[in-house]
Amino acid sequence: MGRGTERLLRGWRALMDAAPPEVPEDEPGDAVDPRAIDLVLRVGELLLASGESTERVNEAMLSLAVAYEIPRCEVQVTFTSLLVSAHPGGGAHPVTGSRAIRRRTPAYWRLTRLHDLVQQASIGMLDLDGAHAEIAAIKRGRAPYPPWLLVVGLGLIAASAGVLGGGGPIVAVTAFVATVLGDRTAAALARRGIAEFFQLAVAAGIGASAAVIVVALGSPGRASTIVTGAILALLPGRPLVASIQDGITGDLVSAGARLLEVFFIITAIVAGLGAVVYLAVYAGVQVELGDLPSSPALLEPVRVVAAAGVAITFAITLAVPRAVLAPAAVGGALIWMIYVSLLHLDLAPVLAAGVSAVVIGLAGSLYARRRQAPSLPYVVPAISPLLPGTLLYKGMVELNTGDAAGGALSLVGALSVALALAAGVNLGGELVRAFQRVGMGVSGRGARPAARRTRGF
Hints:
17 helices; mainly alpha; 3-stranded antiparallel sheet
């Protein structure tokens, strides 16, 4: 064996006998307080169930995790579930908690209080015990309006929308009665365990039945305004805005789920309308397209007041704080005036609705930022006067009177207007955010997932 080989073997033995290099141990982990994880989950649950967008829920939960020092916290928020995990390190087991969202009820007054809780916790003004006491008080709290007013509010939406479409007192009263009757019938079906799809279909059918009765009694010109009012009280303005916002911010799973919810709501309304209109036509009731209002978009004082009435009653049904009612009314009147003015400049209805919504989204987001409050309670009621009730009714009449192509175009037009409203409102909020230094808690512009450039990959 040569010297070179011996030298190589000696080096190999020395290498094998040497002690392995020391690997730096992970830093000892802090104990995870289960109360902190429970608080994060409960706040996220109430925010999501009350109608907040997925991105805002994620921001709020991460802000609380940082405030109460949950180590290496990860948060996952979807349309129906929440998950929080903590990784203490140092050999300690990770801790995970989850919560399912089984019921969603619009309660915008709760959003305001929850956002205030998160802001106080983020700046260290609320300890963990105080936060638990506050979340318990919020959960036990009641809406700022009695239950009967929420029911009456639906009827007032229909009455105001009927006047907005050109109707008079008789139209307003008829739309009010039909909407309240439809809502109470849907509530009775809910108590018997009937799915919400069929509840909405029955409610829409009752509104359309009132219009058919009016036509049969010899007043066809009032039918469309009655149906428009009844439909407007059922249209999904809140989930539509949230679905577009989730899609824009990159939460595609939640956006898809919310859009599917919107689709089923609109399908239920269309099904209820279609069934009643078909039966009316089959029974010989002359439901004619010529009975639709030709130019309901006017800047008359009555119409402006009616638009404000739609917005303020829509806000009541969403259970916004009382302080939001006046801004909601102003927003409803403003969006109607902008929309009609743009129509008079020969803009297409979809474009006019989108531009009007951008202005409302910008103004509402700026006002909400000034009051350090969530923006949804200010912008969602304000866009309600432009929700496309008349186009839905027109589309169903066309489909049931033999004009399938025209009916399909009218329904597509209604959906286009609704999407333009939702996208416009969110664009206004994005313009505000573009010049905002930081978001809520840990949600600065650099930390926002939707702001990362992926170029579609």
